[in-house]
Amino acid sequence: MTELIRMSAEQMRRKGIENAEQKRKQEQDYQAKIDNMSKHNVGGLYDIRAIKKSAQFKEQQSFYNLQNSLDEMEDMFQANRLYKFKETTEAFIKKITGRDLDSFTVRETGKFISELIKEIKLKYEVKE
């Protein structure tokens, strides 16, 4: 029956303040648990924050970036004065793989072409 009695405005205000304080306390406790778990040393193997900050992770992100691999292949072609060969190579990769370009395929194709260019230069180098 006491539940049916209406609360006064002052009681409602006090109850709201209590609820807000409890919520803040819960948030602080939760944040403390997260911070405590973050400080836990697992040898760096499974600490996601440490992995994302590592130089290796950034290097892998760069390695798997398609635009970076295309830029590297284009630089290789320009160094060998094959300016228009990039488009031909991209079309070849798409035709052979049957799918869109990915960084692995571009890099492997670039390595193959680079080795081929080196072999051709060695073979046909003018011997004096």
What is the structural class? mainly alpha
Segments where pLDDT lies below 50 for 5+ residues? Answer: none
Beta-strand content: under 5%
The termini sit apart by 111 Å
- Record field, number of beta strands: 0
Radius of gyration: 31 Å
Share of helix, binned: over 70%
Sheet with most strands: none
How confident is the prediction overall: mean pLDDT? 82
User: Quaternary arrangement of the chains shown?
Assistant: single chain
H/E element order: HHHHHH
DSSP helical segment count:
6
- Count of structural domains: 2
Based on Cα principal axes, name the global outline: elongated
Itemize the secondary structure elements and their pairings.
Blueprint lengths: L8 H31 L8 H6 L1 H9 L2 H14 L5 H13 L5 H21 L5
Helix pairs in contact: 4-6
Give a concise summary.
This protein has about 130 residues and is an all-alpha fold. About 75% of the residues lie in helices and about 0% in strands.
Task: Describe this entry's structure for a reader.
Helices cover 73% and strands 0% of the residues. It has 128 residues and is mainly alpha-helical. The protein has two domains: 8-39; 60-123. Helix 4 packs parallel to helix 6 (103-123). It is elongated, with a radius of gyration of 31 Å.
Which key features would you list for this structure?
mainly alpha, 2 domains, about 0% strand
